[in-house]
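Notebook entry, structure prediction.
Reason for the run: the old model in the group folder had no record of what sequence produced it. Starting over properly, with the input documented here first.
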Amino acid sequence: MQLSLVIPCYNEGEILPSLLRRLDALTTERPDMEIILVDNGSSDATTELVRSAPERNSCIVPVRVETNKGYGHGILQGLKTAGGEFLGWTQGDMQTDPMDVLRALKILEKSDRPARLYLKGKRCARTAGDRFFTCGMSIMESLLFQQPFWDINGQPNVFHRSFYENWENPPSDFALELYVYAAALRSGLNIVRFPVLIQNREYGTSRWNINIMSRLQLIQRILKYSFQLRMSLHKNDSSNF
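New structure, fully documented this time:
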């Protein structure tokens, strides 16, 4: 059972040495894994570190995106090159440990129907502000889609290739997380959550979680896309009758 794990990195030059050490440990334990390390249009040391990563770890496949077109775009470019039967992604800022994906693999390997699973991390040990934001978004999306959503941006995400091959017009920004979650629910996949510990960033700052205004802008973008997605799903449902 091979898993291809996509990790998008945008200007993470300071933290990449730590990430690469964790990826060494991950692939030592699971040498059958493929790590798709995406340089998502970076302008710092990320470019060279990603390019040279296979020299230290043959399980790493580097992908260069020349122009940053969004977080989701980087993930999608990585998925295009992935060769595993199972696919997934996690963030490259080390707030979640890439070793967490081992928990997902254990769940898959114990399942009688692993292709029908969608595995998603459930973030623990978060700040009160982050929990409030997550709870508010989860309630809004659950009401809109009339299905239970929780911790939409939880990491890592792992699923069978057949699920990925049915995606249509996924968004190229942070709304990708919502799109895939909604698609998993719509496809009737068994969504399994497992706890992952959230840690503080060692270096740098978040690209979106900077202040209250940045959060409000993200909420506005996600809600706008949510209504578009809900309308699209409604039209598809109506066309079946």
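Summary: DSSP finds eight helices and seven strands in the chain.
The old model has been moved to the deprecated folder.
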